[in-house]
Amino acid sequence: MEDIKFKKNPFSLQLNAEDFLPASSEDKAQLEVMRESTTYWKDAMQRLRKNKVAMAAMIVILFVLIFAFVIPNFYPYQYDQQVRGSEDLTPMQYSQSEIQKMEAGEKVFPHIFGTDKFGRDLGIRVMVGARISLLVGLIASALVLLIGSIYGAVAGYFGGKVDIIMMRIVDIIYSIPDILIIILLQVSLKEPLNALFASNPAFAGLQKVGVGLISIFITFSMLYWVGMARIVRGQVMSLKEQEFVTAAKALGASNGRIIQKHLIPNCIGTLIVTTTLQIPSAIFTEAFLSFLGLGVAAPMASLGSLASSAIDGITSYAYRLTIPAIVISLIILSFNLFGDGLRDAFDPKLKK
Amino acid sequence: MSSNCLLDIENLQVSFFTPAGEVKAVSGVSYTLDHGEVLGIVGESGSGKSVSAYTLMGIIADPGKVVGGTVEFNGHHIEKMKEKEFRKMRGSEVSIIFQDPMTSLNPVYTIGSQLTEMLRLHTDKSRAECKARAIELLGLVGMNEPEKRMKQYPHEFSGGMRQRVMIAMALACEPKLLIADEPTTALDVTIQAQILELMVELKKKINMSIILITHDLGVVSDVCDRIAVMYAGKIVEIGSTDDIFYNPKHCYTVGLLNSVPKIHEQGHERLIPIEGTTIDLLNPPAGCPFASRCSQCMKICLKQMPEFTEISPGHKSACWLLQKEQFEKAGEGNAQ
Amino acid sequence: MTNYVIKRIAYALLTIFLISVITFALMNMIPGGPFLSEKAVSPATTEAMKVKYGLDKPLYVQYGNYMNNLLHGDFGISLKQKGRTANDIITSTFPISAKLGGISIFIALFLGLTMGSVAALNRGKWADSLLMVISTLGIAVPSFVVATFLMMTFGVNLHWLPTMGLKTPLHYILPVATLSFYPMAYITRLMRSSMLDALNQDYIRTAKAKGVSKFSMLFKHALRNAIIPIITYVGPLLAYTVSGSFVVEKIFNIPGLGREFINCISGRDYPMVMSTTIFLAVLLVLMNVLVDICYKLVDPRIKLK
């Protein structure tokens, strides 16, 4: 046991009797390095801020939001405005009449992305298309969040027979092939909805949105919430076993209060992450449907329908597909990356 | 190194390189182990007791790295070994049992296939021989119907049974050293005793050495020849089991013993917990790591790490109180 | 096991029943019924047609008749393609879609599993970053964009590959590439995280301590565990391939069921839409049942009740 190093002469260290006096509690306190305590939220947000990819994605999202919701208000063209004589312009190209106008000293705003075959400015159409895509993503996710979390929380909280029946329903809806039902709904809801909108002036606003979009929302709120419901149920099931819920119950808190005050705040991270990741999925579906000609109705544009109508002239006007395609990919990509970042930030497993 | 020495660890340093900085999990640990000896390593979680032993198995989890020191096992320096040699050694000459038998077995393979894998890796036995030996091993660790057990999956076993399987697997090639990393922590109290008994019994049969890592002083007192007490990545006291239990010198060891209930003692003696929490290994203090929790803390303790003082042959402790005694003695000597 | 299979099939049947009801109800919501068309038809003819097809009866009787026919393998007739039954159309187009989809799923699985494992093993290195960039792009770019991009690049500009139809094996390259891109990217990401998860498990530590070689540790101990979550994705993957093939078949002009389905919708060929929906739905539901059963077989921990 010679292995343990033992300095034969400890007094080479220049010790004096002073050193062996008891240390005061102040001396000791200096050593107590307490790490700053942080709340779950603060901690998650801090991690999110450190995640460069997620922050970049967030900036892109903000940029796209401005692009889609703010700029169109100041833009000199309207999405459905057909400029005579300016058909099929390439990006930054001016038509004959526009050149004449410019020569006469008038200011003509350039068609940054060109125009389509009806003379509609593609720049504004892409912006409005992005707005529609974002709206679809946000509204559909909000519907999913609302329905899914309430359903899941109720099933998870009450458990037992209620849970079994509710989850069986979820299982069945889960195994319904969503795309087929969406397409079917699109087709069959079109005319009844149109009739409904025509009969009642209260729905005039909805008519502008178009039957296509309304059916997308209906489908999302009918089918897509099941994933969210499953996740929330799982969370609630594990949370309700925990002591603080038992404590709340012992203090006589009502079911509603427990759900509201204890369960939802604790699920919030999961809810945010799942909802964020639901957005690109909804945008994806809308683009797919619009591409097949089932989404928004002309003259309204969505990124999918812009891409779809670009297919016909693809060989000569490839940019008409490229621009909406890039915008849609950018939106989906940044929401996905931001969602991933949120998940990493909220996932306690990665907490060190 | 004496001829009877199996393992010699010198000034081992292991660090984890986390995003927050370098965490010095083990900072300068040295100990030896003789053939057939049982060494207990005691300490609270995070004291580096497992990490020091994992070095020997090459299973330090990412982002951990050995940053210094030497490990000599059975005459070979493992830091100089080639990967293939090292791999040959693991399992056959040193093997390990982990704390959690629930997760340490692969859930998608049968017990039999995981047991025979060990034999096929390290012996020249044929498939049939391996199977026969595996069945024999399962019998040896006290499983009934070992033939049937071979075909079952880990999830069909209870915690105690899984730990028996782990022991059977660890002992399959009759290793020279068994590292038992909290082998009983995850088990019921009644099963704990059975597993310990089984380990001691099998140790005698094949004359191996054991490093028993635990935070449970009750476990070490029964089984170990020697005990090393670790705190914050350092060994603070090492000695025979009797030295540690009846003549503890380091304040942490004393505190540790005071926080364990004693059955044989008369009357109601209150348990004395150790106040405070362990230090932040990201920014280890210059002095003794235990200083901030120590009731007898002196000024020097906060400034400088004490050296080991040998109390009796084989019993050493790193505490300034011991140095103080020597200092005072020397002072008296000078005065005379 | 048997009980589980029976239970699972019972659920599948319930789902199929539900889908058929939904489909039937939705088809009947369309004003004017299936005989609404651009051409003016005299009321008498419509009546006669209604009687002929049993559409004068109450809805539940109609549904009963329809289901009865379905169960006997009769999917009805097409309104637009005169003289062709839904059966004809399905049997002539479905094999094409199935072949295309099958090849795509195979390739997506093969590449996805490989790329995911490689990324996990090289975590944080350049190979991982590269694969993650590719797969992140893969789940962000809609299939119609991929399809047109591939078609423009390799078909129109470079003239390397044919872009229309499926006549030769060369014709398969672009549609298969498009169709497998998204699932490949998805599987890569899934495989990476599940492989990393598996590699962090205690049993991998045990394997290392046993002295198992790196190869065996990865391919024997980690892979088998990591692959379990992937199997759950194969069900939705089948569904995705179906929906993806709508786009791919439209763009590459492939005479498969997907293109047929889209044509039926835009041509308002409602009976065909209904038949195709039910056919595809039944197929997907049954495939999901199969995947579920496989899943239970691979993971011994799941008890079959």
Notes on the protein architecture:
Chain B: InterPro entries: AAA+_ATPase (IPR003593), ABC_Ni/Peptide_Import (IPR050388), ABC_transporter-like_ATP-bd (IPR003439), ABC_transporter-like_CS (IPR017871), Oligopep_ABC_C (IPR013563), P-loop_NTPase (IPR027417). Chain B: GO terms for molecular function: ATP binding. Chain B: It is a peripheral membrane protein. Chain B: This is ABC transporter ATP-binding protein. The complex is a heterotrimer of chains A (352), B (336) and C (305). Chain A is mainly alpha-helical. Chain A has 13 helices and no strands. In chain A, α5 packs antiparallel against α6 (160-174), α5 packs parallel to α9 (211-240) and α7 (178-199) crosses α9 (211-240). Chain A is flat, with a radius of gyration of 30 Å. By secondary structure, chain B is an alpha/beta fold. Helices cover 38% and strands 24% of the residues of chain B. Chain B starts with a strand and ends with a helix. Chain C is built from eleven helices and no strands. In chain C, α4 (86-121) packs antiparallel against α9 and α7 (169-199) crosses α9 (214-251). The N and C termini of chain C lie close together (6 Å). Chains A and C meet through α7, α11, α12 and α13 of A and α1, α5, α6, α9 and α10 of C.
Residue-averaged pLDDT of chain B: 83
The tally of beta strands of chain C, per DSSP, is 0
Principal-axis shape of chain B equals globular
Mean pLDDT, all residues of chain C: 80
Shape of chain C: flat
Q: Write down the secondary-structure element order of chain B.
A: EEEHEEHEHHHHHEHEHEEHHHEEH
The secondary-structure class of chain B comes to alpha/beta
**From the 3D coordinates, which CATH architecture of the domain at 96-266 in chain C would you assign?**
Orthogonal Bundle
Largest interface pair = A-C, 43 and 46 residues
Query: Helicity range of the residues of chain B?
Result: 25-40%
- CATH topological fold name of the domain at 96-266 in chain C: MetI-like fold
Task: Give helix and strand order of chain C, one letter per element, not per position.
Answer: HHHHHHHHHHH
Q: In whole angstroms, how far apart are the ends of chain B?
A: 40 Å
CATH superfamily of the domain at 96-266 in chain C: MetI-like
Low-confidence sequence ranges of chain B: none
Order of adjacent strands in the largest pleated sheet of chain B:
6-7-8-3-9-10-12-11
Beta-strand share of residues of chain C:
under 5%
